[in-house]
């Protein structure tokens, strides 16, 4: 691995191949980042993912040219031959964002071969400058965001220089229907599904290109139907429609989607009436929600999560999980979240007066079986 010298901006970081994979572990033991010499709060990293041509670079351009006054660094991950092309296509902002550094990661997909260089590039970015407000990481169109989230999602208590702010997936409204229809009843699925499943924010882009389909649906209905399809895969993400990724920047930067307090505010976890699992289930990747009125034993929950997240029995693969827990012998509302094998449970705050003490967990994953998950959560409850 070679890294640029100290005095010049790291225009390129060349990466050697590594087959190393991160072992399954709880969030208590992530790779540590050292805090920059200037200290200060960690710099938020927004991962931008999306299928080929969906509009990722358009979004980066839009953010860089926005009037938010933030100093933004961009990390591009493209395969070798595209390097330089991507850079040329991105139009650095005028009077809006200040691009502090530009790092391109070559020779591999960021999700599998370059993660150690990514960590190093991030550390350098944060340490080299006094003030950097945000980092955008644009991934190659084929990237699966899961390993990235594992690298970037860090425990609040650690002295971290960077922090995953959110995963944004840009979706092409013109082509998504075809992808969904093609894979609806199939056991396989494209990267586009995985990217939707991991997203905290989904930008449904290119709505200007959507025309009424052969069935005569009005365009607005067509887009509504697309949104429903997206929500069937991932009911927790915020979906924003756009043309050329022109979105309200306050909705996509500084989201803190991985903070425990954010989870506790998610409507889906607090609403009693609506069950996410009432959606039509014709997808291999979907969202479901399970609830339990009895208090749970925290130790049992840890063991249970290790089993379901790490062992992947019966081809069940949980990508993302968020929940609130009512824990035995505690007056605290606990939040739970997981990204692939990593998970954390945090006591967030005291239960409020009149608040219904329940445990409610939303899973996004592949081959999820509601009954099995519900029964296994029930097995974590305290039996009198
Ligand atoms: N009509 C229309 N075109 C768009 C919109 N958003 C992006 N485009 C165009 O779509 C093409 C692809 O956009 P990019 O931003 O390069 O997409 P990308 O996801 O970065 O593409 P890759 O890096 O190749 O995966 C460009 O020609 C954009 O100008 C939109 O909302 N409407």
From TrEMBL:
Tagged with keyword Nucleotide-binding: yes
Protein name: CobW C-terminal domain-containing protein
MF terms in GO: GTP binding; hydrolase activity
Alphabetical list of CDD domains matching this protein: CobW-like (cd03112)
Example of a GO cellular component annotation carried by this entry: cytoplasm
Residue ranges constituting the CobW C-terminal domain according to the UniProt record: 285-381
Biased composition (Basic and acidic residues): 19-35
Keyword Transferase part of the UniProt annotation: no
Domain of life of the organism encoding this protein: Eukaryota
